[in-house]
Amino acid sequence: MNQLQSELRLARSLLAERDTEIQRVRTTNNQYVEENERLRAILGEWSTRAAKLERALEVERLANLDLQKKISILAKQSHVSAEPTEQQGA
Questions:
Q1: Could you report the per-residue pLDDT of 14-69, keeping only the tens digit for each?
Q2: In a domain, 87, yes or no
Q3: Structural domain of residue 48, as residue ranges?
Q4: How far apart (Å, rounded) are the C-alpha atoms in residues 51 and 45?
Q5: Is residue 86 part of a domain?
Q6: Chain centroid, CA 84 distance in Å
Q7: Separation of alpha carbons 29 and 79, rounded Å
Q8: Of 10 and 78, which is predicted with more confidence?
Q9: What is the mean pLDDT of residues 2-18?
Q10: What are the entry keywords (predicted)?
Q11: Is 80 domain-assigned?
Q12: Quick check: 2 pLDDT over 80?
């Protein structure tokens, strides 16, 4: 009878240790889950910012192309209007 009670205490002790270990693993896992959610939120924010910056950069690129075209047109017009003056002076 004493041996059975001793084995029962040992089994209960092992179960308690196992439950404690399971609780520790669950707590650690929950911390990892929370950190993962936090990092996903940060990544989402950065992705949104990157997309906005890419759109703004594309708008700037198109605006620069438009300005380059206008400069080219104005330079050609200036060159064309300067030619008759040069010919008259020669």
A1: 999 999 999 999 999 999 999 999 999 999 999 999 999 999 999 999 999 999 99
A2: no
A3: 1-72
A4: 10
A5: no
A6: 58
A7: 73
A8: 10
A9: 96
A10: Coiled coil, Membrane, Transmembrane, Transmembrane helix
A11: no
A12: yes
Residue type, 51: A
3: amino acid identity, one letter: Q
Q: Output the pTM of the full model.
A: 0.59
Q: How far is CA 56 from CA 22, 26, 45, 69, in A?
A: 51, 45, 17, 20
- Contacts of residues 59-68 at CB distance under 8 Å and 24 or more positions apart, as own/partner, are none
Distance CA 49, CA 57 (A): 12
Structure tokens at 59: 């708008």
Residue 61 has what pLDDT? 98
Amino acid residing at 90: A
Is position 90 within any domain? no
